[in-house]
Amino acid sequence: MNELATTYNPADVEDKWYAYWLEHDLFKSVPDAREPYTIVIPPPNVTGVLHMGHMLNNTIQDILVRRARMLGKNALWVPGTDHAAIATEAKVVAKLATEGIKKSDLTREEFLSHVWDWTNKHGGIILEQLKKLGASCDWSRTAFTMDDIRYKSVIRVFVDLYNKGLIYRGKRMVHWDPKAKTALSDIEVVYKEEHSKLYYLRYKVVGEDTYAIVATTRPETIMGDTAMCINPNDPKNQHLRGKRVIVPLVNREIPVIEDEYVDIEFGTGCLKVTPAHDPNDYMLGQKHGLESIDIFTDDAKISPEGGMYVGMDRFDVRKQIAEDLQAAGLIEKIEEYENKVGYSERNADTVVEPRLSDQWYLKMDEISKPALEAVDNDIVKFIPEKFKTTYDTWMNNVRDWCISRQLWWGHRVPAYYLPDGTYVVAETPEEALKLALEKNPELTAEDLRQDEDCLDTWFSSWLWPISLFNGILDPGNKEISYYYPTSDLVTGPDIIFFWVARMIVAGYEFVGKQPFNHVYFTGIVRDEIGRKMSKQLGNSPDPIELMKEYGADGVRMGMLLCAPAGNDIFFDKKLCEQGRNFCNKIWNSFRLIKGWDVDDALAQPESSKTAIRWFKAELEKAVAEINALFAKFRISEALIAAYRLFRDEFSSWYLEMVKPAYQKPIDRKTLDATTEYLDTLLRILHPFMPFITEELWQHLTERADGESIMYSTMPQAGGYDADIIGEMEVIKEIVNGVRSVRAAKNIPNKEPLKLNIVGEWHTAQEELLAKLCNLSEISNVKEKDASASAFLVGTVEFNVPLADSIDKDAELAKLRKDLDYYEGFLRSVQKKLSNERFVNGAPAAVVEAERKKEADALSKIEALKASISALS
Predict the structure, then answer these.
(1) Under a CB-based contact definition with an 8 Å cutoff, are residues 213 and 362 in contact?
(2) If we measure between CA atoms, which residue out of 45, 20, 49, 33 comes closest to residue 136?
(3) DSSP state of 79
(4) Could you report the per-residue pLDDT of 14-46, keeping only the tens digit for each?
(5) 193 and 149 fall within a common domain
(6) What SS3 string covers 734-754?
(7) Is residue 331 scored above 60 in pLDDT?
(8) From CA 616, how far away is CA 723, in angstroms rounded?
(9) What is the DSSP string of 169-217?
(10) Strand boundaries in 206-330, DSSP class E
(11) Cα-trace Rg, the chain
């Protein structure tokens, strides 16, 4: 092993050890006799590159899987990517457009060839970036939702559910993307607040010279109106009951119907009903048996069924029809209006159109029941638990799932149409032909036409924990039996319905068990002022650049310091700086210890014996705390506990207690104990900071090739000596008191001091106290020394005699000025800590920092008051 560098440079360490881990297959897992620990990665889109949300999610996964390895489990983290049908197709369409090629100019096969080329070139980028983070995935198992096993699994599931009567084809209202010309799921629609206009249109009442006024934001849809609706409880519109009205410009008579759905307070209380172009109107149309007139084409132009403005774009029609209505005297008034408008997530400039469409649906009611019970009964535990309420609400109101998309990239619907319009559903064209021949023996393969649509991307990812172990195609195989159910899932709450719930449904439907035991929900990554990080705002740092600046371990630690489970993360680059500084602290502590000369003949001082006994207790206490925090998935707090143990107790106190005098050797027993403690600390820190801990652990002693800290044993807690911890807390307070006197009086550390104890208090740790404070004498005295600087520890007064040359009045003035400052500072800190929103909403590390400020201020105030009292 080469000599350890003077300073820590992550670039010299990270690539080296990641290559070492890969070379020795240290991330690989195969079933054996050990307890399995399994995590499957939420598959990032092949279109994606690493962002801060990925950083947080995958850091947490890596911490959990590394810790599991060190606990002796057979730990497996399975990586993979999602084909992201809509997003990928949009990327390829845009790329082809730059080459002057339209999708419509290509055959399906030609277009898919372009998509595969793009996917093969770009699809693995994000996984390579995850390696920079230190992700310890078994890369030999890397999966893709469109690879052979996953593709065949999806098709088999479709056929199975169809044969069970759970999949059907029907016309329903969907979110329609007119640019991509496909249905969208709810999660693929982004709602934005927009400044619109509210048009008050005049519908003539048949047989009267009066008009019913309707308020709408969409006058372009009047060609699809098939009724007007009023609330039967609305007194102002009772005169319209049983009447008919004429649609303006269209001149079609439509009935006035009554339904309590209508909001009496909106507009005039009269509602135009357009069943083909509004989900609520569609519901009314179904309830009241109204005709649905679809006036739009696939690309949101007016269709011949509209009868007017045929071929014009919907927004051009909105302008034109408003002018025409005005000219005809059929607009009562126009008001400014704020409303939410849905946009396609993948085509950000495209307004989504509610549209009746023939789609494939999965009945969700019955198959969702086991999944609801699993979460309610904590078979699947949510962390934080608050998300159970969100889950229950959705699952208790679950609707049939629209699983088809009008795309070419994806798993093609395995339905095959016969010439007479009927269809068969089969896994392969050959099986489809067999089924078709049962209907008509004269048919040939050329007579069958496969459905053009693809399946919703979520219809492949809902099988992810099963299909990764080939549990659909080969049920009960060795791997699915060993690794399933998986242990933990780490994901965001924004996809609780679209992915988490559906995976639980699939687990019970196809394996008969839950897919995972715990779901850990991360929060949204926000900037330091609370805005969601996004490319548009320019407030999202590039994770790769962050890792170049602060090192992967520094960034991992920075992310975790501000990441309580389920709460939004207020990310600040200063936390990465804190992480990098902590790496430097670990590095320098290691070099300090390794730089000590040892004298085997040297007796072990009593102060070192005490220090070793004390730190053993602190270590065991911290290990118990960290274990308890991990059991509750309080990972951020576990990191803070490990951080404090190393920075405060080990580096700031223990090393000061045991380090030899300048250019003097250390005894063997103390060095061995210290080296053992360092080894233990590196193992505790490894899941959080894998690179630096591997580097230092390898330097700690000679290691065989292929050895790694990731397979060393995670320290386990035993009972700890609370008495020595309590005793040493008092010693630490005394030391801090003496150090405060030195700082206040500008007395150098090398100058010995005397310490007086007022009263009969004694300690068995005088040798250690003298070493830490550089004391020449410790004495018990009956009275205060008026010239001494005094401080209290509990009820015991200590004072440090100082030279008579001190200007008493000047010293008092300085002390009182300092007291005023710290009292003001304390008030400001306590005001912040008394704010419940701050305490409950800010990251744990930030709140803890404020509490430390409060404690430090109280300590300083107490010492200052004691000093003033002694001099007065």
Answers:
(1) no
(2) 20
(3) -
(4) 999 999 999 999 999 999 999 999 999 999 999
(5) no
(6) HHHHHHHHHHHHCCCCCCCEE
(7) yes
(8) 12
(9) EEEEEEEEETTTTEEE-GGGEEEEEEEEEEEEEEEEETTSS-EEEEEES
(10) 211-216, 227-230, 244-246, 253-258, 270-273
(11) 36
Mean pLDDT, all residues of the chain: 94
The whole-model pTM stands at 0.85
Residue 676 sits in the same domain as residue 794: no
User: Tokens 């206490």, residue?
Assistant: 621
Per residue, the 3-state secondary structure of 645-691, as one string, reads HHHHHHHHHHHHHHCCCCCCCEEHHHHHHHHHHHHHHHHHHCCCCHH
Bridge-based pairing of strands 789-793 and 796-800 is: antiparallel
277 and 187 within one domain: yes
Q: Please, which residues have CB within 8 angstroms of residue 669's CB and are 6 or more apart in sequence?
A: 604, 608
At 493, which CATH number? 3.40.50.620
Q: Quick one: average pLDDT of 641-662?
A: 96
What pLDDT is stored for residue 805 in this prediction? 38
Mean pLDDT of 228-257: 96
Question: 279 pLDDT exceeds 60?
Answer: yes
805 and 677 share one domain = no
769 lies in the same domain as 646: no
Query: How many angstroms separate the Cα of 709 from the Cα of each of 148, 290, 679, 687?
Result: 36, 70, 10, 10
Which residues does 396 contact at the CB level (< 8 Å), separation at least 6?
372
Question: Is the same domain home to 630 and 701?
Answer: yes
Which of 329, 354, 379 is at the close of a domain?
Answer: 354
Adjacent-strand bridge partners of 174: 355
For 449-471, b/e burial (b = at least 16 CB within 10 A) is eebebbbbbbbbbbbbbbbbbbb
Q: How confident is the model at residue 348 (pLDDT cuts 50, 70, 90)?
A: confident
pLDDT of residue 803: 64
Mean per-residue pLDDT, 788-812: 79
DSSP character for 632? T
Say yes or no: 193 and 333 in one domain. Answer: yes
End of a domain among 472, 492, 522?
522
pLDDT tier, 718 (very low <50, low <70, confident <90, very high otherwise): confident
Q: How far is CA 140 from CA 27, 77, 136, 143, in A?
A: 9, 11, 12, 9
Q: Residues with Cβ < 8 Å from 182, sequence gap 6 or more?
A: 86, 176, 405, 406, 407
Q: Where are the beta strands (DSSP E) in 442-541?
A: 449-450, 454-455, 486-491, 516-521, 525-526
**Is position 6 within any domain?**
no
Smallest CA-to-CA distance from 597 within 521, 661, 543 is with: 661
The answer to whether residue 429 is domain-embedded is no
Confidence of residue 832 (pLDDT cuts 50, 70, 90): confident
**Domain interval for residue 842:** 729-871
Residue 657 has pLDDT above 60, yes or no: yes
Confidence of residue 535 (pLDDT cuts 50, 70, 90): low
Please give the structure tokens belonging to residue 584: 């430097």
HSE of 485 in the Cβ direction (CA atoms, 13 Å)? 21
Give CA–CA dist 333/214, Å, rounded: 10
Give dist(CA 263, CA 777) in Å, integer: 86
- Tokens 């007064």 locate to 797
* 849 & 752 share domain: yes
Q: Residue 806's pLDDT band (boundaries 50, 70, 90)? A: low
What is the rounded CA–CA span in Å between residue 688 and residue 681?
12
Residue 692 has pLDDT above 70, yes or no: yes
The answer to the question of residue 67 being in a domain is yes
Token pair for residue 793?
A: 């520890």
Torsion sign across C-alpha atoms 393, 399, 403, 405:
negative
- 204 in a labelled binding site: no
Name the domain count of the chain: 4
pLDDT digits (tens, 9 = 90+) for 260-276: 999 999 999 999 999 99
Is residue 828 situated within a structural domain?
A: yes
